[in-house]
Design a protein that fits this description.
Structural class: alpha/beta
Number of strands: 19
Shape: elongated
Radius of gyration: 32 Å
Helix content: 10-25%
Distance between the termini: 45 Å
Order of helices and strands: EEEEEEEEEEHEEEEHEHEHEEEH
Largest sheet: 6 strands, mixed
Strand order of the largest sheet: 15-12-16-19-18-17
Length: 308
């Protein structure tokens, strides 16, 4: 189980979350005004009634004697709703705002409805607040909390490692030597997937194999960039292409045609091309739905059909 707080944002519910409390938890006023018996407004307006008390939000409800009114604020509880209604302060001669409790109130117009929200009008105890497969956002957290749900069962976020490959890549160089490039793919992919780890390897097969040996046991997915084509120094293709689960080839698209996929010690490895634009496009098309599936999302790939 996981606590219902900001750390749940972006995670997916693994089981239905059911309400512990009704929402609202008690009958309450929907307006700032005066709680009265409807029967006391049966004659012609206006009506002047003595005021028997005050119920701010958060206070305990009080009974309204017949022929009297009780000032009540929005959200304040109503004990007995039968035959009761709330007259908005705008329908009285009492000024709105923070004024002293008047001895009496003159009602100039009867409301068309009671302005009382019954307990459980939105959600009843035991009803589902959010179902399994729901992607948790701030609104879901608010709904869960209001219904007294403080822990939920959720899929954990997949642990993801990013490996950028290529001797030409350097991290944050002050100056570039001939043939060198800043490693933009690693930080980009790490930011896109919220990676736990980002490492860079050159073109030595042993270095890539060592990095995979270290990362695979502690991560749910490894994403590589570069070295997926058929060049003499394409280290990712060289190392991962040896496994029985490997596929390397071209997808009918541009940019991002050369790609690969394999398992390394049972951990999936998604191999993206080294061109930064191609890596970005392929991440959106293939890595994002894979991560959504690993995160427990019931519909990880969203399809859009359009004429372009």
């Amino acid at each position: 189980s996981a606590p219902v707080d900001a750390s749940l944002i972006g995670r997916v519910l693994a089981a239905d979350a059911t309400a512990r409390f009704p929402v609202p938890p008690h009958a309450n006023s929907a307006m700032d005004g005066f709680l009265v018996h409807a029967a006391d407004l049966s004659s012609s307006a206006p009506w002047t009634l003595p005021v028997a008390g005050d119920v701010p939000a958060g206070a305990a409800p009080i009974d309204v004697p017949a022929g009297h009114a009780v000032r009540i604020m929005t959200g304040a509880p109503v004990a007995d709703t039968a035959g009761m209604l709330v007259v908005p302060v705008e329908n009285t001669t009492t000024p709105a705002g923070p004024v002293a409790l008047p001895d009496e109130v003159t009602i100039t117009e009867a409301p068309a409805k009671s302005h009382i929200r019954p307990a459980g009008e939105d959600i009843q105890p035991g009803a589902p607040v959010a179902t399994a497969g729901t992607l948790i956002d701030a609104a879901v957290i608010a709904a869960l909390t209001s219904a007294g749900v403080y822990t939920v069962t959720a899929f954990r976020r997949p642990r993801i490692a990013v490996i950028s490959s290529g001797e030409e890549l350097v991290s944050s160089p002050a100056q570039l030597a001939p043939g060198q490039l800043p490693d933009s793919n690693g930080p980009m992919l790490a930011a896109l997937c919220g990676a736990d780890t980002h490492v860079h390897v050159g073109d030595a097969p042993a270095d890539l194999a060592s990095a995979l040996d270290e990362l695979a046991p502690s991560h749910d997915l490894v994403i590589t960039s570069g070295g997926v084509s058929a060049g003499a120094f394409d280290v990712v293709h060289t190392v991962l292409g040896r496994t029985g689960s490997a596929w390397f080839g071209h997808v009918d698209q541009r940019p991002g045609a050369p790609q690969g996929y394999s398992l390394w010690n049972d951990t999936p490895v998604l191999c993206l091309p080294g061109n930064p634009v191609a890596a970005f496009v392929d991440f959106q098309l293939y890595a994002r739905p894979l991560i959504a599936a690993l995160s427990g999302h019931p519909t990880p790939r969203q399809r859009v059909n359009l004429r372009a």
